[in-house]
Write a structure and sequence with these properties.
By secondary structure, the protein is of the alpha+beta class. The chain has one domain (about 1-240): 4-Layer Sandwich (Phosphatase 2c, domain 1), CATH 3.60.40. Helix content is about 30%, strand content about 30%. The chain is built from six helices and eleven strands. α1 (about 40-60) runs antiparallel to α2 (about 65-90). The protein is globular. Bound molecules: calcium ion. Calcium ion binds near residues 189, 230 and 231.
């Protein structure tokens, strides 16, 4: 299979800075979004530490070795670095980041996930969210208290219960599965999903005449057209028939 991908990150219509960060590394088949939080530009610092740590630690990992173990190790290292940075700098206190990272290796995908950014998979016309949001409202959704389409309207929608950095250790969700030809993976920060429903995302992502870069741009435009209340970052990865994986 051949991997095509695109990405777009925008501060949105309201925020004055962009605390999201992302990686698209086609050579190592590593893709991620990280959404930072914390005052005094600390969110920006946190999401960049998360991104650069995974880039650094996973760019040498070949197809040999256990990708899930490597991903978990790199995410844990990112957590330790952010935790250490804020321990040494009072301005960074309380900073953290979401992390949703995708690696494609040997006919499988591997996702490491913490926080309320999301990974979706569009396969055979069906869009599935592969990750669970580590947020208060997601908990309410899973327990049948809220409908999914109402999560973004809830006053506590921004309350995250797990993120990278605030504590010395963090639980990291790992999702793996087989890859199929024409799979489309979407990684995104909550600036996209607070504005667009899954149905709206599905509609935009299903346009197979568009290149992944055009899809990423269309998704970010739609979020901004919907008010752009937050930073919005999107990575689109499509597996296409071809000789090289
Ligand atoms: Ca956000």
């Amino acid at each position: 299979m051949h991997i095509r991908y695109g990405s777009q990150s925008d501060q949105g219509r309201i925020r004055t800075s962009n605390e999201d960060s992302f990686v698209v590394n086609g050579r190592n088949k590593l893709f991620l979004v990280a959404d930072g939080m914390g005052g005094h530009a600390a969110g920006e610092v946190a999401s960049h530490i998360a991104s650069s740590t995974l880039q650094e630690l996973l760019s040498t990992a070949g197809s040999q070795g256990d990708s899930a173990v490597a991903l978990r190790f790199a995410a844990q290292a990112a957590n330790a670095r952010i935790y250490e940075a804020q321990r040494q700098n009072p301005e960074y206190q309380g900073m953290g980041s979401t992390l949703t990272a995708l690696m494609v290796r040997g006919g499988k995908y591997y996702i490491a996930h913490v926080g309320d950014s999301r990974a979706y998979l569009l396969r055979d016309g069906t869009l599935d969210q592969l990750t669970s949001d580590h947020s208060v409202v997601w908990h309410l959704f899973e327990n049948g208290v809220l409908r999914k389409e109402d999560l973004s309207k809830h006053p506590q929608k921004n309350l995250i219960i797990r993120s990278i950095g605030p504590h010395p250790q963090v639980d990291i969700d790992i999702e793996t599965g087989e890859t199929h030809e024409r799979d489309v993976f979407l990684l995104c920060s909550d600036g996209l999903t607070d504005v667009l429903t899954d149905q709206a995302i599905h509609r935009i992502l299903s346009d197979s005449s568009k290149a992944p870069q055009e899809l990423a741009e269309a998704l970010v435009s739609a979020a901004n057209d919907g008010g752009g209340p937050d930073n919005v970052t999107v990575v689109v990865v499509r597996l296409e028939p071809g000789t090289s994986e």
